[in-house]
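Backbone shape codes:
***
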Amino acid sequence: MKNQPPLLLIGTATAIAIAVLMPLTYLVMRTASISGEQLLMVFRPRTLQVLLNSAGIAIATPLFSAAIAVPLAFLIWRTDLPRRRFWLIATTLPLAIPDYIGGFALIAAFAPKGSWLQQLLEPLGVQELPEIYGWSGTILALTLLTYPYLLLSVSAGLQAIDPAMEEAARSLGYGQWETFWHFIIPQLRPSLVAGGLIVAMYALQDFGVTTLMRFDAFTRVIFVQYRYTFDRHQAAALALML
């Protein structure tokens, strides 16, 4: 006969499940009481655009983060770079930066007017830099803040791969890039997927960067709907979609 789990464990798990389901239950109840007119406003074309914006950053951010994380992981763990642990810690420091601070730093550095870069280039006749607000600034900020998640995941995956396999592939005539694409990447796929999902979830729930960059993702639109229109029903419906 199998041992029954302790009552304390069952009670703790039940309490956690209830705590997790309470916000979702609230959103469902709020959305269920929405009127037909309010429901039409929720499903207007602008909401579709917000949905596409949020999906876009959830897809683009992991891709750009991988473009930074994978080369860094190879540089740290597959070369003779000295002080590997130091560089691993240094390259993951963005994890300690709050999203608001990261977004503000980018605006201070690259805003069209009055930024550090614009003031530096002003003697050369540059009066205004390209616009950083919107899609481009949001993706740039989120990528720089989240690539360490992928870096840590890929680093763990690389350390689990036997270097002898790479040497065997090269002895069979495979070049460096062929070895990378045909042998290394397939074994790193679980690490890339795991890290990419974390980055995508971070991008979807981010509020600080999207607000500072004036980008209409779900988090910013929900806040505006709740704070300035005082319409909890529509805000709840949008949150349920997210």
Notes: The chain has twelve helices and no strands. The first helix runs from residue 7 to 32.
